[in-house]
Structures are given as structure tokens and as C-alpha cells.
Amino acid sequence: xxxxxxxxxxxxxxxxxxxxxxxxxxxxxxxxxxxxxxxxxxxxxxxxxxxxxxxxxxxxxxxxxxxxxxxxxxxxxxxxxxxxxxxxxxxxxxxxxxxxxxxxxxxxxxxxxxxxxxxxxxxxxxxxxxxxxxxxxxxxxxxxxxxxxxxxxxxxxxxxxxxxxxxxxxxxxxxxxxxxxxxxxxxxxxxxxxxxxxxxxxxxxxxxxxxxxxxxxxxxxxxxxxxxxxxxxxxxxx
Length: 238
Known about the structure:
Blueprint: H1 14-27, H2 40-47, H3 51-63, E1 67-70, E2 74-77, E3 92-94, E4 101-111, E5 125-134, E6 137-147, H4 164-172, E7 176-187, E8 203-213, E9 218-226, E10 231-233
Antiparallel strand pairs: 1-2, 3-10, 4-5, 5-6, 6-9, 7-8, 8-9
Helix pairs in contact: 1-3, 2-3
């Protein structure tokens, strides 16, 4: 199976991809609190990136309270409970652990709700369908329903970034502060993308999520169908 082209998949800047990958490893306990990272040049070579890009990634982790940079000593992991990352609410990972999230938009439509979508002031939503990847592997289908009142003009495929939560905060002026997930199994939807057409079994893991903004108003409802042969849902607490 060919890897989707960059034109089909929206991607974060490389330094944010690396910082999010490291953040997920910290939260998963792969990188331990207080652990000293390998030297920057050695780490950059292992990751196949420039030292300058790595340093930008480490700066993001430092700003988020997940890294302490000690002059003359090195970089040390700080597993801070109050850290904020782009994928802070993201709960899917590969069975082998981790995996860098990205997504390819299938469609964006302005539609009325259905029998499960009834939140918001009016029956008016943007429905976003996309394929979710971990690293380069397609692992899930997502259907996100956003209350249309948050969008001042219109919402198009070309507008959206890899992280919807980041897009909400930077472009729409609100952010997701709380979520509630319900986990079960379900049959895959008929609108699946070509690279997932033979990927999922007839029934698969299913996550329904209600999301609220910083003012306590429900902004979003989503459905995720994920491939249990490659992927699991994980929530960790400390």
C-alpha cells in the first residue's frame, strides 16, 4: 500500500511532529521523569532531522513543562501533569505503542444533525470526515460534528490543519477543555476512504466523544472507528 502523498495529508510542521512524538512517549512512560535525553546531535541523527529542528522541538517541550534544559548538563524529562500538548486528548496508539498522528480529510459538509447529533443552539453543523494515521499507517475513520455557530464564514477542506483542536484555538477562537468518551464496537461506515476500504474488519473498535469548550458549551460530537488489529484505545492517569 502506497503512503498517501503530502498533498492529501495535512501535516504539522516537522518540529511540532517531533515534539508531539516525544510528548506521547513521555506520557506513555517510555521516557521516564528525570531521565536525561541523549546528546542533541546524536538524537537528531537518530531521528533523521537537523539539529536546529530538534532544538525547536525541545523548546516546545520545555515551554509545555515537559522538559528541563540545564546548561552544560543536558535535557531532562519532566512528566508534568499540567502540560498542554496538541494531542493531549488523543487516545489511539499502535499496539506496539505510540505513533505520530496525522489525518487526511475525506469531506467537509454543512448538514443538519441526525438522531445522535442534537447538541447546540440550532440544528446546523459542519460534518468532517477523515482518515486517521499513526506514523504512515491508516488506522481509523473519524466523523466530527462541529456546531456551525463557531464558524463565522465557511469551513472548507483546505482550511483545516492536521490537528482540529489546534485549528479551533488558532482560527476559531475557542478550545476544547473537556471531553467524554464512550467505547464500544460498531460496524464500519459505508463512506470509508480507499486506503481503509480493505483495512477494517466488518466490526471494529468504536469511540463516541462529546467535547466542551472553555466556557462549558458543547462544541463537538465525534465518532471514531478504529482497526483493532493495529490500534488500541489507551487512557492513562497518574
